[in-house]
Design a protein that fits this description.
Length: 245
């Protein structure tokens, strides 16, 4: 896994402008893992994807992640620092995710965990319940009852619910809940932390900062964009300080 250069940060940011968040995450990982095809990355489970994104984010921007939330009870703004290593529940892996064989009630199911491809297939669903149901159905490779194969859509709701829970438990990195307590009113609540959105927001800030730096240096010195971006951040900053002096 390689950190993105200044030029690559701008490329990812530019490509991502017209992409769905699911595709942005793959674009980002594609630059960091150039020997992996987009197709292969899209077959990683969401938890694997997020563990890789967390590792990349840590390498590029460090361990501390400044976050904020708004208390749903009193509206107080809460700022807090997350640590990338503490958020990473599983080791990043590029291995093809396994198929699980689970027995639930009288049924034997062969199941894979949701991937970026599966998420992309349900983005157009009209509501969350339909999306979740479709996602679960997509992940069922085979199902049988007393040795006889049956169609996944004929499974009882109770079995599907238990299956969805088992899938979530098997990919804990895919949905990361944070327990928060409001310092003003002491109420507790939970938020879902999404590394893909968090990282993209940071990358966008970084991209715009780089563009402003290019603008100032190009205007002052007449240097080419490619040459300015190829400099180390330290050297760019040194020249920027001179421009301001
Ligand atoms: Zn509060």
């Amino acid at each position: 896994m390689q950190c993105l250069s200044a030029d690559q940060i701008l490329q990812v940011w530019e490509l991502g402008q017209t992409q769905h968040p699911i595709d942005r995450a793959l674009t980002l990982l594609g630059f960091a893992l150039p020997d992996r095809s987009r197709q292969a990355l899209s077959r990683l489970s969401i938890g694997q994807r997020d563990a890789l994104l967390l590792r990349l984010r840590q390498r590029m921007f460090g361990e501390a992640m400044e976050s904020f939330a708004v208390c749903p009870s009193c509206g107080e703004s809460l700022e807090f620092t997350l640590k990338a290593t503490e958020l990473r529940l599983v080791e990043p892996s590029l291995a093809e995710p396994p198929a699980y064989e689970w027995s639930i009630a009288d049924y034997t199911l062969t199941v894979t965990l949701p991937t970026s491809q599966d998420l992309a297939a349900v983005v157009d669903c009209s509501d969350l319940a339909t999306a979740q149901a479709t996602l679960t159905q997509r992940c069922i490779q085979q199902v049988s009852c007393a040795g006889v194969a049956i169609a996944p859509h004929s499974l009882p709701d109770a079995v599907l619910q238990q299956l969805a829970q088992q899938m979530a438990d098997s990919d804990p990195q895919a949905e990361l809940g944070l327990d928060l307590t409001c310092p003003a009113c002491q109420s507790d609540w939970q938020v879902v932390f999404d590394i893909a959105t968090f990282f993209w927001t940071e990358l966008s800030v970084q991209a715009k900062r780089l563009l402003r730096e290019v603008h100032r240096l190009a205007r002052s010195y007449g240097w080419r964009e490619a040459d300015i971006l190829a400099m180390s951040a330290m050297r760019r900053q040194f020249y920027l300080d001179l421009v301001d002096a």
